[in-house]
Amino acid sequence: MDIAFHKSCVGKEEIWNVVEVIKSGWHTMGPKTAEFESRFAEYTGARHAIAVNSCTAALHLALEAIGLKERDEVLLPAITFTASAEVDCYFKAKPVFVGVQRDTLNIGPRGIEGKITKRTKAIITVDYGGQPADYDEIRRIARRRKLFLIEDAAHTLPSSYKSRKVGTLADITCFSFYATKTLNTGEGGMITTQNGKWASRMRIMRLHGMNRDAWKRYTKEGSWFYEVVEAGFKYNTTDINAALGLAQLGRLEWMWRKREAVAAFYRRALKDSPAIGLPSVKPDRQTSWHLFVIRLDLDRLKIDRNRFIQELQARGIGVSVHFIPLYRHPFYRDNFPVSVGDYPNSEWLYERIISLPIYPGLTKKELEHVAASVKAVAARFGK
Ligand SMILES: Cc1ncc(COP(=O)(O)O)c(C=O)c1O
């Protein structure tokens, strides 16, 4: 049996929506994008939602809007995808890696406080696997130390913190609609904020620095006249992507319930395997279940994590590791060296984590095969 690590979940609605846009004669950013933005703002409760072509673009625009400058420092988790850190480098600012907590793989208040210097300008939180970070405490630190708080919510839809949906927890929130994410438009992203000044800046900067609503210049209600007020970027999305996004947004809760059922199945099936640690979710928050990450108890195994992965792959199971700590990558190692000993949890986790398949389309047979294989490998190589 071959089980993919990820398979996109699309229904008839996605197909009809896309066909409708293709037939409409207008394919790039336009009325569907505006509709997607307003539905997304309504869904998250945010005042402003700005659609872009990736979460990386969203993070770049967010840092531009807060005025990040050369030599500023930005705090972010040591365990995340490179996008959270590469965007700092666009400004010649310095990504500063904060060690993650063992239970959630998120950064916490103590780790953040320990890395703040006079140069720190912003904190980028990443909601690892979909579980929101400790926003009350982190917001308090940001306010007290006059730092901007940007949430990399690439994994975080639909998630909530103390019953509040993600989208208004930080100063600016950046979502990803990349193909493997919980809302998938192939490529895409969204920015939410309550701040109107930043919102209009980001709208202008996502489309060449042309002034507001320049995308309407080819329509009846628009005007051919526009002005370029900045050297902006080409980060707009398209109405084709927005058509996909609207259909996916409509099925978001349904898809979440399916992933939650997968997580519940894994929990039940693996709870008696002593070598397998299960993900922990704090009681005051909801995770999107973008990832289901187990941790191996290496003291109970004769093999390491890499060999464990090989054994699962040999049984036809697609798995992954989220993520290699950023300071281990050649680029960050050479340009922003750290002392690895300062990251005991990140190192401990990196040796032990494996992401299992979790998506709505997984069948009962497939789930049983994944769980049985994890248990079989743990038993065969147990000590
Ligand atoms: C934590 C995190 N941030 C940002 C991104 C970048 O998202 P995108 O591919 O939409 O730019 C990813 C993508 O995997 C991610 O995992």
3D architecture notes:
There is one protein chain. The strands form three sheets. A seven-stranded mixed beta sheet has the order 1-9-8-5-4-2-3, sandwiched between helices. The chain contains 13 helices and 13 strands. α1 packs antiparallel against α8 (239-250) and α3 (55-65) packs across α7. It is an alpha/beta fold and 383 residues long. The protein has two domains: 12-250, Type I PLP-dependent aspartate aminotransferase-like (Major domain) (Aspartate Aminotransferase, domain 2, 3-Layer(aba) Sandwich), CATH 3.40.640; 253-380, Aspartate Aminotransferase, domain 1, CATH 3.90.1150.10. The protein binds pyridoxal-5'-phosphate. Pyridoxal-5'-phosphate binds at residues 54-56, 80-81, 83-84, 126, 152, 154-155, 176, 178, 189. Pyridoxal-5'-phosphate binds next to α3 and α4.
Q: How large is the count of helical segments? A: 13
| Number of structural units classed as domains | 2
| Multimeric state | single chain
Note the gap between the termini: 28 Å
**What is the CATH homology-level superfamily of the largest domain?**
Type I PLP-dependent aspartate aminotransferase-like (Major domain)
Percent helix among the residues?
25-40%
Task: Report the strand count.
Answer: 13
What topology, given as strand order, has the largest sheet?
A: 1-9-8-5-4-2-3
The low-confidence parts are none
H-E order:
HHEHEHEHEHEEEEEHHHEEEHHHEH
- CATH architecture of the largest domain, by name, is 3-Layer(aba) Sandwich
